[in-house]
């Protein structure tokens, strides 16, 4: 069974710099509304208003005009099992939600395994607060990875944040614990990543792969471990895990790219910082999530 998302109405006042432009130009060029989403709004009808009057995208707008755009309703799939789990909310408003994901929880369940997930916890959170929204993850973390996940509450917010991500304006930093003492304080890995031919999950460094760049800084070393801060220029699947293993310093607890022995520890990778511009207001936002306590135990 499925139900629809609550109506989302976006509202702006026209500034002097947009005086005399068409509504289409305002929405596409100033507010970064995608061509596809704008076409859907036009098709549904009753979605574009200027000063309370329904208009078309050809309408000329003027300073101080009030623009209202109603987004097409989205279908909320019941295939994602809602989960009444603790949710650590870092920030929330009508457009986005930033949470600190715990270890051991998938971001989104696979099609064939409907298990408790961050998506399910977020949908339950929405329901508890009377918000009918679907789940739009701007970034996803692996099951063991902890830290910041940015979630858009509607398609427009998702599109704007995804565009920032492609343009390098949405910055994320990670902290990881790896095996071995890294001899460099700073370094970068420029190595393309491709799917391993014999696996649907595993990735490898390959000349035929997609461009991938990871920058790192060694911030601590102790016994046989190093703690590193990492910043991604690209966002390939398992990028940090693949690059650090390829460099010779696999993540602690990573049995896919490191030791095949069954380590009891979970992969020590934490999404600790995110910076971006708010998809609606354009204001700069920066959030961080504290390291889980188990990271410190390896450096006592």
Give a short overview:
It is an enzyme of class 5 (isomerase). With 300 residues, the chain is α+β, with helices and mostly antiparallel strands.
**Relative helix content:** 10-25%
- H/E order of the elements? EEHHEEEEEEHEEHEEEEEEHEEH
Weakly predicted, low-confidence segments: none
Total count of helical runs of at least 4 residues: 6
Q: What would the principal axes of the Cα set say about the shape? A: elongated
CATH architecture of the largest domain: 2-Layer Sandwich
Description:
This protein has 300 residues and is α+β, with helices and mostly antiparallel strands. 18% of the residues lie in helices and 31% in strands. It is built from six helices and 18 strands. Strand 9 and strand 10 form a beta hairpin. The chain starts with a strand and ends with a helix.
């Amino acid at each position: 069974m499925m139900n629809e998302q609550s109506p989302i109405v976006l509202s702006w006042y026209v500034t002097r710099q947009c005086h005399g432009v068409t509504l289409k130009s305002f929405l596409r060029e100033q507010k970064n509304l995608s061509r596809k989403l704008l076409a859907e709004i036009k098709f549904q009808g009753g979605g574009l208003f200027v000063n309370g009057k329904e208009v078309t995208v050809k309408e000329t707008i003027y300073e101080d005009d009030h623009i209202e755009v109603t987004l097409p309703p989205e279908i909320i799939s019941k295939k994602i099992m809602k989960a009444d789990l603790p949710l650590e909310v870092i920030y929330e408003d009508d457009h986005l939600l930033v949470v600190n994901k715990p270890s051991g929880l998938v971001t989104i369940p696979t099609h064939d395994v409907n298990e408790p997930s961050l998506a399910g916890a977020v949908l339950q959170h929405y329901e508890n607060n009377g918000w009918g929204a679907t789940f739009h993850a701007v970034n996803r973390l692996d099951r063991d990875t902890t830290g910041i996940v940015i979630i858009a509450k509607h398609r427009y917010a998702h599109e704007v944040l995804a565009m920032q991500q492609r343009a390098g304006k949405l910055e994320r930093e990670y902290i990881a614990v790896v095996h071995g003492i890294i001899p460099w304080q700073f370094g970068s890995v420029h190595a393309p990543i491709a799917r391993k031919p014999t696996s649907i999950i595993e990735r490898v460094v390959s000349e035929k792969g997609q461009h991938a760049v990871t920058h790192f800084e060694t911030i601590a070393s102790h016994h046989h471990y190093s703690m590193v801060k990492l910043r991604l220029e690209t966002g390939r699947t398992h990028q940090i895990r693949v690059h650090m293993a390829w460099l010779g310093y696999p993540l602690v607890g990573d049995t896919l790219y490191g030791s095949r022995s069954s380590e009891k520890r979970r992969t020590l990778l934490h999404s600790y910082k995110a910076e971006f511009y708010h998809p609606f207001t354009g204001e700069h936002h920066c959030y961080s999530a504290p390291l889980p306590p188990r990271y410190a135990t390896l450096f006592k």
